[in-house]
Amino acid sequence: MRFGIFLALLIFAAFPQVLLGLQTFVIRDYGFFAYPLAHFQREYFWRGELPFWDPYNYCGVPFLAQWNTMPLYPPALIYLLLPLTWSLSFFCLLHLWFAGFGMFFLARRWTGNNFAAAFAGTVFSFNGFTLNLIMWPSHLATFAWMPWVVLAVELAWRDGGRKTILAAFTGAMQMLAGGPEIIFFTWILLLVLWIPQFVKSGSPRRKMIWRFPLVVALVIALTAIQLLPFLDLVAHSQRYTGYSDTRWSLPLRGWMNFLVPMAFGNTRDMGVFYQDGQEWTSSYYFGMAALCLALLALFDGRDRRIWLLGSAAAVAFIFALGENTFVYPALRRIIPQLHLITHSIKYLSIVIFIAPLLAAFAIASRQNMSMEKHAAWQKRLLAVGVFLLVLIVVILFWAGRFPFPTDNVHKILLNGLSRVFFLVGSIALLIFATSQSRFCRILPPLLIVFAWLDVLTHEPAQNPTAPPSIYEPGLSRTKLALQPQPALGGSRAMMTPAAYTMTLHFAASNPGENYLVNRMAYYSDCNLLDDVPKTDGFLSLCPREADDVNTLLYDSTNDFPRLEDFMGVSQITDPGKIYQWRSRKTFLPLITAGEKPYFFDDYSAWRALSQSDFDGGKIVVLPEEARSIVTVTNQTNARVLNSQFGIQSVNAEVEAAEPSLVVVAQTYYHDWRAFVDGHETTVLRANYAFQAIQVPAGRHQIRLVYKDRAFEIGAAVSIIAWLGCVICLFRPLKRIIR
Length: 738
Hints:
Blueprint: H1 2-14, H2 16-19, E1 24-25, H3 29-46, E2 53-54, E3 61-62, H4 77-81, H5 84-111, H6 114-125, H7 128-132, H8 137-159, H9 162-177, H10 180-199, H11 205-222, H12 224-235, E4 265-269, E5 272-275, H13 288-300, H14 304-320, H15 327-334, H16 348-367, H17 371-401, H18 409-433, H19 443-456, E6 465-466, H20 475-480, E7 492-494, H21 497-505, H22 511-520, H23 544-554, H24 561-566, E8 569-573, E9 581-583, E10 591-593, E11 596-600, H25 602-609, E12 619-623, E13 638-645, E14 649-656, E15 660-664, E16 672-676, E17 679-681, E18 684-686, E19 690-695, E20 698-706, H26 709-730, H27 734-737
């Protein structure tokens, strides 16, 4: 309890205005991705619906299946029920506290030392990497569960019984939080820890051999409701086998930023520092005290677990280098599925998880030493300190002698000298904190606060804040007053490729001003705050064909006015402007009827969209396999009498003189079902990435409904699994679980 209160006070001291509701986080993806998605999910929640489909981005895209949108994560109720401008920030800081608390319990179990556990818990919460994750609530929540999962699963494979069920619940919570890479790293690390314990003599091998797989199976069953829609979307998304995003690997010089965190980079984005060549995380610095102790543990460690953790951290560091070495690219050729892990710097999450534990082992080993060995321990600590001091001097010389064009050598020098201060101060406090002096009860918390200050001051604020008013719903609609106004079922907005590039390079020093400019441009997912549909978006996964159309629009210097007409673009940004818009008069309704069908293979259909003679009001391009289904051969006399778009449904009334095709400029995805006068019919993939339905002659009512079959199957599995686990938890079936 004392540590929980202590850590809460440190978090409050770091973010008082946020916790008091005077300011809110705004940095990068927090404002452009996390907050708009939370707002969108909240709108669904208060309508009493689950958010299966997002009709505002990419002309429609699955939402619940994204996984990192956290639609089924129980603690999301915090920001669904409470005022969002405060509650989403609170959600992040609560998980920051939860992360440190989990590490405290794990480190205490492994070391048996409260001081070591408190130090590890604080470092795990307050390091550059974890603080950077605040911009991604789902990643932060997943990372916060990591020590809890490791602790619970280890207890389960050793003791069985109810601990097996509790481990499954813990793993399920991390799964539902929705950070796939961190979840994957958690279970790989658990496997690494399980194997030596299994082979170790004296272990209950016959029970361990099935307890660990049982926990894995239970976690999968408990979260099938989320996993099955996700895997279904992955299979139909742009991230198919062979997909690769090699940006933002850790630079070869990246090890230097563990010592001088502001070396080789600049503060070009809202005043936040980023390395040259890597912009996924603003920092991964975990402090001089933790670094000293982690190295000392490896130097002193005779415990097999220390060497195992150290080896895992070393491998993860090499993998984080990504394309900068031959190792990880070679491994990806052997295991192509690793291409799904974007930005190999994410492997540093394993290093950040392990470092506090190694530091805890070093503290615990000293407190268990006899006084005779204390002097030798101090010498080794001083040797590590001198080694790090020499490295800092080398880094500062290198940075001063061979600076990058954007480097501020003066700031790098000051940053390095301040780290020297924290290095010397940490070593002094470590020596006295582990001694038998009369001040020894005061020094451990003083050392923890000193380490906290080290991380808090290691570079400019990683999470700048702004007034909550920047997230006011409908703000852009009111200020821009576009005519016609893009609206669901009416028309869409489109940011030009030039405007998109300008937003990437725009960076105002004032975080609030920076966000508002991008919001007026409907950049990323900001359009969700204004209920404005648009042609692009920012989500991890997108149906493959929709992503191809988006690539056509944004990866080319050409204009595609006919395609934009078909997609219902009524507003487009002015040339050379970021958020000034001009209207387009030639856009088509989102539902049209009577087009003449042409049948092409996928590549030819995709190319047809870019042709100047493509007219979405007169022709429709269908895949070759639809030829046997479609009986329409020419343009027909048909018209749409009225239409209505819902969040995950479409209704229209059509009148046709003969059998006709009705084309809907909404993203094709196999979970959409079509009904004509109540009878189900086939949804055709039209114009490569959109929808079409064939209707007979006469007046007909058409209804399109989104029905996620993978979700329904997963829900049935998960409900059975949760019921079974709850029954076993309160009425243990010893013969089964043990």
